[in-house]
Amino acid sequence: MSTRDIRNLILSALAFGVVALLPFYDTGYILSIATTMAMFTVLATSWALFSGPTHYISLATAAFFGLGTFVTGYGFQTMPYWSLPMIAAVLGAGLAGLVGMVTLRLSGVYFVIFTLGLAELVRQLVTWVQNRTGQRGMYVLTSITESHIYWQLLGMAALVFLVGWLIGRSRLGFALRIIGNDETVAKHSGINTALAKVLLFMVSGAAAATVGAMLAPRYIYIEPSTAFAPLLSFQVVIMALLGGTGRLWGPLAGVIPFTLLWEFISRHAPNQTLLLLGLAFLLIVYVLPGGVVGLQARLKRRFGQGGH
Prior knowledge:
The protein is mainly α. The protein is built from 14 helices and 2 strands; from the N terminus they run αααααβααααβααααα. The protein has helices spanning 3-19, 29-54, 61-75, 83-103, 109-133, 146-168, 171-181, 183-188, 193-219, 224-227, 230-243, 250-268, 273-286, 291-306; strands spanning 138-139, 221-222. A two-stranded antiparallel ribbon has the order 1-2. Helix 2 packs parallel to helix 6 (146-168). The protein is globular. 40% of the residues are buried. The mean pLDDT is 85.
């Protein structure tokens, strides 16, 4: 480990320590916004771990997230709460592995379409089961507070960053970068491309399901239409691409401004939130194709060239 790595780890630990103090100073609106940011930080960063190096655009986040919320919804009365996020992680990884083995042989638009349909497929299955049992949703009434959820999400964010950092320095991370550049070359180099993609897709699915399990007490009442909302998948993709997937911290640079802007639009013009999504897509395509990370790299090259 280099001196730079040690310095970055120490700075990251200090940053997490500082933001973890927030609930001691505010338990209202600011904490609510910070909890939302923490949620999207985990979702967007874990999404970028898979989609960043492989260039596969996954819209399956809502499927894994909804699965996690229903794990807590069904289990919080009969099982210890601390065990539910772990169960959700296992189920999320299992679902991602199953889906990955079937779909990651597809590429381009076919993979995008399948992952978009996955959330709807799971939602319809859950709805069908509830209709068969006469259930229409469920209340998740616990003693878990917003502060508890915030700290859980911060811990999850730290874990995702650590896993991403380790993957980036592993043979798996190296293999994924080759796959992203040219999958055919990766296959001829002896890399098991299918296995590498499935493994990372499982990490992303487990993280999203865990976040869903942690967030369930915040919603109080959950039903399939809200737990598996496709909008969540699009928000995560936009935040990750807006920040950039070239660096581990990239999605965070998209999460903070987009969450604040989304909150502002939701409060003052709630019918225009979808317009914001469209404008964000245009911004990413025409102005920030590499996100904030790409913009930083371009500015660095320009000023570096100007200095010679």
